[in-house]
Design goal:
- The structure is a single chain.
- This protein has 308 residues and is α+β, with helices and mostly antiparallel strands.
- The chain is built from six helices and 14 strands.
- The strands form three sheets. The chain has a six-stranded mixed beta barrel with strand order 3-7-4-6-5-8. A five-stranded mixed sheet has the order 9-12-13-11-14. Strands 1-2 form a two-stranded antiparallel sheet.
- The longest helix is centred in the C-terminal third of the chain and has 13 residues.
């Protein structure tokens, strides 16, 4: 359940303490005015062995596992200074700016909803987004605890009290940028491994984006309106170690992590990518275990994705 995962204490640099979803009790008990939220991107921060890099992502579109967090955090300050409300349509994300609106589509039942990202998380490695209790209820997975979802960027969100969004990205505190991370998957071109055979990667079908309806085409703010969109009848879970523009890069990482990972291709924004994956899995527990194995081998960027 998401609440238990979010309670794990993460060691984060002093400059990014405000990035945590759940702050220390003495901070949480401070009364936060409802209109205290600001627009912010945030500085890089570390959870365990993984570094996260908040940034502007207007083309954000990813699949993964959604969880939810609820009354335990009611009234606490979110990462951008707003007040968490379990009955509001909000969410926590690791790297998106705050506040922004995203569309979350439950790939298990086709329910789709716009929510406001105003917090950091989830800190359970196999999850892509944490929704408020109400949002999880509307999308039909509160009782189950998790769901396979697609998350897509919609727009910057209105600031509390109707304040205007900044015209430019706010500058971050330069001194807060931590030291260079370790173990991050490289995406630049690398030399081929001696003696390796560059066999063609597998061709796999991509999960199609949910078809827009009249409602989803015009809605840009959270309204609580749930639309139903077409989704694949069957999806599977994969653990993706990386996606590269160079086949040799994927081959090199495959050699490092083990031949159990398969290389498949996809096209994103007109560019051919080579994905290195384990799977498919039908049960989330199996995908979580595979993710833990890859993380143990040093693949800190590995994540769970949903595909056909």
């Amino acid at each position: 359940m998401s609440q238990a995962a979010r309670s794990v204490v993460a060691v984060i640099s002093l400059a990014v303490l405000t990035a945590a979803c759940a702050t220390e009790p003495e901070v949480n008990n401070v009364t936060v005015p409802p209109n205290a939220g600001v627009y912010k991107v945030g500085v890089p921060y570390q959870i365990g062995d993984t570094w996260y890099y908040p940034r502007e992502q207007p083309d954000y579109d990813e699949t993964g596992i959604a969880s939810w967090y609820g009354p335990t955090f009611y009234g606490h300050s979110t990462a951008n200074g707003e007040r968490f409300d379990a009955s509001a349509l909000t969410a926590a994300h690791r790297t998106l700016p705050m506040p922004v609106n995203v569309r979350v589509t439950n790939l298990e039942n086709g329910r789709s909803l716009i929510v406001r990202v105003n917090d950091r998380g989830p800190f359970a490695k196999g999850r892509i987004i944490d929704l408020s209790e109400r949002a999880a209820t509307l999308l039909g997975y509160k009782d189950k605890g998790t769901a396979r979802v697609r998350v897509t960027f919609v727009s910057r969100a209105d600031l509390p009290g109707g304040g205007p969004q900044p015209s430019q990205t706010p500058p971050e505190i330069a001194s807060a940028v931590p030291a260079a991370p370790t173990g991050k998957v490289a995406s630049s071109d690398l030399d081929p491994l001696p003696g390796t055979a560059a066999s063609p990667p597998a061709q796999t079908a991509d999960l199609p984006p949910p078809a827009p309806t009249a409602d989803t085409a015009v809605a840009t703010q959270p309204t609580g309106i749930v639309t139903t969109v077409p989704v694949p009848a069957v999806t599977h879970l994969y653990v993706q170690a990386g996606a590269f523009s160079s086949y040799q890069n994927a081959l090199r990482l495959q050699s490092k992590l083990g031949r159990g990972l398969r290389i498949s291709t996809t096209t994103q924004n007109g560019q051919k990518l080579y994905r290195l994956r384990l799977g498919p899995y039908d049960e989330l527990g199996d995908a979580d275990q595979a993710l833990a194995r890859l993380t143990g081998l040093g693949s800190n960027d590995a994540r769970i994705v949903v595909d056909q």
